[in-house]
Amino acid sequence: MTPTQITYLVFGIVLILAIVFDLGLLSKKSAHLTTKQALKQTVFWVILGLGFGGFMWYEDGKQAALEYVSAYLMEWSLSIDNIFVFVLIFSFFKVKEPYIPRVLLVGVLMAIVFRVIFITLGVELVNRFHWILYIFGIFLVYTGFKMFTSNQEEEYDPRESKVYLFLKRFLPITMEDGQGKYVIKQHGKPVYTALFVVVVMLATTDIVFALDSIPAVMGIVDRKSEHASLVIYTSNVFAVLGLRSLFFLLRGAVSKFDFLQQGIAIVLVFIGLKMLGEELIGTVVDKPSQVIISLVVIVACIGGSILYSMHHKKKNAPPDLKD
Asked: How far is CA 85 from CA 39, 161, 184, 248, 293, in A?
């Protein structure tokens, strides 16, 4: 077996064990996850994710590992930005505390499936049509500028979501939670509950974020190397695996990350410009150096935006939640 095949095998084993042990055994239907428990689980996921990067360094080399860490940090920061939207969705549909872990569990599993599908399609399209990278680059630059200047808190309204409006139009919907069920009967006819709508909205929300994150990761990795797809798959999946515990950890401190989206926006613009000028940059800076520069930019922008958020608070920010 080649080093890349061995890494894929280890990744598959770790993924199955993680889903069975954490997402399966630890996600009881009505188990409430406290902030302290969420912190421990989040630390576990981060250590697991970065530890896999260490294994990749040993098995696939320094460049593959640095690409993985850069991509993982990018995806993880986008996951943090995801949390605020999740909080708004749960708040709008008034999801009761006992049902939140299970809804998040289903949402995470669906997100993993959709990520794998999107990554496979994206990699195949890039391999067949190299010019698509330039479209990705323009898209990332546009998204970054839009994200930097927009106010996510004011923009996102679950009741105006196209997914919610679509479901309301074509399916019989009730705002009741159905005592944890996704479909109930009213007057002898099946009706979809608020929990069903929430699961669908969580999954589609992650798809929207994937439209930014997957092209961004493609701009970080060396797509000509044999480990390119491996880095893209593993960084995405490890970031999504920790999303459930991250939600319970950060929903009590959403105002501590007010300016995170500005930090992410700068990174997206940087990667987009890097993709657009790939050929020119390649004549000046070699691939290993590009990876190190990307890692430094990601750490500086994400870390800087979080530190800035801790000392500056946006107006009209939602109050922090407490256990």
From this structure: 20, 11, 27, 13, 30
pTM given for the model: 0.81
- Determine the Cα–Cα distance for residues 250 and 15; give it in Å rounded to an integer: 24
For residues 28-47, give the mean pLDDT: 75
Range of weakest confidence among 59-63, 86-90, 174-178, 317-321? 317-321
- Number of helical (H) and strand (E) elements in the chain, helices listed first: 13, 2
The b/e string for 234-252 (b: 16+ C-beta within 10 A; e otherwise) is bbbbbbbbbbbbbbbbbbb
161: helix, coil or strand? coil
DSSP secondary structure, 168-212, as one string: HHHS-B-SS-GGG-SEEEETTEEEE-HHHHHHHHHHHHHHHHHHH
Query: What mean pLDDT comes out for the span 253-279?
Result: 80
The Cα–Cα gap between 200 and 237 comes to 19
CB 193 within 8 A of CB 156: no
Q: Locate tokens 């920790």: which residue? A: 242
Quote the strand ranges of the chain, DSSP E. Answer: 183-186, 189-192
Decide: helix, strand or coil at residue 86: helix
Q: Using DSSP, state whether 3 is helix, strand or coil.
A: helix
Cα 90 to chain center, whole Å? 17
Q: Is the CB of residue 12 less than 8 Å from the CB of residue 61? A: no
The fraction of the chain above a pLDDT of 90, given in percent, is 6
CA atoms within 13 A on the CB side of 282: 8
